[in-house]
Write a structure and sequence with these properties.
CATH class: Alpha Beta
CATH architecture: 3-Layer(aba) Sandwich
Largest sheet: 6 strands, mixed
CATH topology: Rossmann fold
Strand order of the largest sheet: 3-2-4-1-5-6
Shape: globular
Distance between the termini: 34 Å
Number of helices: 5
Helix content: 25-40%
Number of domains: 1
Radius of gyration: 14 Å
Length: about 160
């Protein structure tokens, strides 16, 4: 299994609720540039899973646009959900699946730690729009290894 585990792009705080926070212009631009730079790798994705919060869904749409994939919105990818729940959902997929996940901190950092370290205590310190690529024969605690890290150009 190959996993592209991504954090949403930079989001505005000007919204009626946390769930409704949209991407900023900078968040959209950074994500588009990252997508375009890594498009050949990202084209391996067969599925896009996104959190049901607005900023994650908008980020996923940026990827879906060029990857010609539909977005599967998953409520278990909310920021306050647990990494082991996501892992159980991944285990239901074909072991050869390639999934692009778009979610939030702390969930994405803890998921990387669970897959690669076997626990959630060494969470990856994501920046917005970042994607960590994990390869694993099976989706299980400590069974993955980082094979890539896509970070947006800053500055």
């Amino acid at each position: 299994m190959k996993l592209f585990i991504g954090r949403h792009g930079q989001a505005s705080f000007d919204a009626e609720s946390d769930r409704a926070r949209p991407l900023t212009a900078a968040g959209t631009s950074e994500t588009e540039k990252l997508r375009d730079h890594y498009i050949s790798e990202l084209k391996q994705a067969q599925i896009i899973w996104a959190s049901d919060l607005k900023r994650a869904n908008e980020t996923a749409c940026i990827y879906a646009e060029k990857l010609d994939l539909k977005i599967e919105t998953k409520n278990f990818l909310s920021p306050d959900c647990e990494a082991d729940r996501v892992l159980k959902k991944l285990q239901s997929l074909d072991p050869d699946a390639c999934v692009l996940i778009v979610s939030h901190q702390p969930l994405v950092g803890e998921l990387v730690s669970l897959l690669c370290e076997g626990n959630i205590y060494l969470a990856h310190p994501y920046v917005t729009s970042e994607i960590v690529v994990i390869d694993c024969e099976i989706a299980g605690p400590g069974m993955g290894s980082v094979s890539g890290n896509f970070q947006p150009a800053r500055g």
